[in-house]
Amino acid sequence: MEWSVTDLAERDLYKLLVNTVLPRPIALVTTVNAQGHANAAPFSFFNVFSHAPPLVVLGIEGRDLGDAPLKDTMRNIRATGSFVVNLVDRALVDAMQVCAIDFPGDVDEIAAAGLETAPGRKVAAPRLAASPVQLECRETVSLSLGTRHRNLVVGEIQYIHIRDGAVDERLHVDIDKLDLVGRLHGADWYVTMRDRFQAPRQTLDTWRAQQGALRAKPEGEAP
Ligand SMILES: Cc1cc2nc3c(=O)[nH]c(=O)nc-3n(C[C@H](O)[C@H](O)[C@H](O)COP(=O)(O)O)c2cc1C
Questions:
Q1: Closest C-alpha residue for ligand 1 atom 23
Q2: Whose CB among 55, 66, 101, 139 lies 3.0–4.6 Å from 49's, allowing a Cys bridge?
């Protein structure tokens, strides 16, 4: 099947995109408002964008509320210019779902989720102590895109925390010790990284050698 996006309703576009671009990593983003009140919320329109400079991107939708059209995360990033990306492991999933609840402003969702924080080293926002990877970021630029207060936030990583024991002295990361999850299809499907395979990268020389070997095979023989 095929579509021009102009023929699709917004909800259908969402369905087609979030159910095909998979899996997506999840940033449980912590921020702080101008009064020092901390907030946490998950975002899977998220990825690392480059390493030099070390950039992450977040896609934060607007709310359908007239007088408060920005999610707390976006409002706090605007107010303080910083945030922390806390990657989500299997053990954090239930707490992450609590952070995604649309609580009234006076509820401390980090406490409601039973999560402990640690102070940021370079930014005002706190980190989530239980997260296996915490990236302290400063907002580089935020682009307001679309008509409904959607923002694309670009952040530059200032400081990296990785769980003790998950990285060796050569900076090789043991991904089993991180146990990260990704977001899958539908509303509630997630994936761990326990089903893996290796696909060695080709050079022009190895590719040519492989093509030559295929051509050299006698006819009828399976490649
Ligand atoms: C796994 C997961 C991923 C999500 N990804 C996004 C996202 O990429 N962008 C977005 O705007 N909302 C996303 N949400 C919804 C927000 O987390 C939710 O609206 C949250 O209440 C926002 O909180 P805040 O107002 O404290 O920022 C996601 C929710 C879940 C459970």
A1: 41
A2: 55
66-69, Cβ contacts within 8 angstroms, sequence gap of 24 or more: 69/148, 69/149
- CA 66 to chain centroid, in Å, comes to 28
Name all domains of the chain by residue range, CATH numbers in brackets: 5-216 (2.30.110.10)
Q: CB within 6 Å of ligand 1 — which residues? A: 26, 39, 41-45, 59-61, 71-73, 97, 100, 102, 183
Q: Give residue 192's pLDDT band: very low, low, confident or very high (50, 70, 90).
A: very high
Per-residue pLDDT tens for 21-76? 999 999 999 999 999 999 999 999 999 999 999 999 999 999 876 677 899 999 99
